[in-house]
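Technical note accompanying the year-one report. For the benefit of new consortium partners, we illustrate the data format agreed upon in the data management plan: each record pairs a sequence with a structure-token string. No post-processing was applied to the example shown here.
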Amino acid sequence: MVDVDEAVPADIVDRLLWRDAQQMLGRHTASEADGTCVWCGWRWPCSARRLAQRADTVARRSWRESWTLRHDLNTMRDRPGRGLNVPSDHRYRRLL
């Protein structure tokens, strides 16, 4: 039996990575009032949003790139903002 997900675009190589990216992109959106992320409260665009955007792009590339980024994405869920190329004043700080 083959499970066909018609919601996934045809150019997606790694469907699991793409679905995870879409879920994170849906959660980490900008607040209109103060310019922070509605989900995590960090300054927009938060590191989770940037990683999700990268995952969305890589899910369309070769399986090697998507495999590597999938591990980065799973690490991000445990410790958001660590180990990413983000400005030092954006890292480890939650704006209220």
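Partners are asked to follow this layout when depositing records. The two ends are 49 Å apart (CA to CA).
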